[in-house]
Amino acid sequence: MKITKIAATFLASALLGALSMGSAFAYESCHKSKWGAGDQLGALNNITKDNILAATKLIKQGKKMAMAIETNSKTPAFPPRTYSMTIVKPGQENGQTLGNTKLSYHDDILQSWVGIGTQLDGLGHIGIDNTFYNCTPGIEVTGVSGLKKFGMETFPGVATRAVLLDMTALMGKDIIPEGTPFNQPEIEAALKRQGNMKINKGDVVIFYTGWHKLLGVDDKRNGAAHPGLGVQGARYLANLGVAMVGSDTWGLEVVPFEKEGQVFHVHQILLAEFGVFILENVVAQQAIKDGVYEGMITVGPHRTTGSVQAIVNPIFVY
Description:
By secondary structure, the protein is of the alpha/beta class.
């Protein structure tokens, strides 16, 4: 697994900064779900049958776009995440085949952290002082062999409207510089530039920053920082009732963080406070080139019991 030294240094400095801040930043850890004590779906509850039917009407050109990047041993990942695949041919040593029809086959063994490549962050991923979504104590969530709550097996699959925000066109940059935050003014400006679009309850919002163009070209820069969603922008989108938020960066939120010591605070707001799922490394380049900013998105992760995250390939249809 290719992990840059600068990314590891960033992680260490961020954590040390958080520790040095101590209790300087008071943050309520318990945020109850408006859908009840047993809720594990969070903002996915905002997706109704009307959302799904309306999304199908956005398909005008009959095109589909895979939004995932390739995942392999060279994919930059947040440290210490790693990836390794082994291909085997069981029972076929020395060129042996199976049966009268001389069957040959391959199998694969994947040894990987799941939060790598294009990924979906579940509600059990991030908490606040060991309290997770819907005021759930960590002891009721954490399990070495799998999460006790909020595992990927609870994710029902998504089909709804997606809104693509082209921040490159808004800011006149092929690649938005690292450390550039997107908050309500930037989000509203992007929507206005794209024809006075509106974000509706149950939508998925995807930021296009051009950052994916650094993959395999400048992995050192890619892994060190990136542009992304700011704290105020996260609350703005969550209060609009969005179901998911994603970007073509590895961490969604702006890095370096807007305030020292607030480590992945946007993740805390979206996941632990509002139950908004997160997509990372999702690329919308094809649709952006076609001048399309809305369509139907589908997300269907593996239903691995107790999994915190999932490697996914969202499909955008327009």
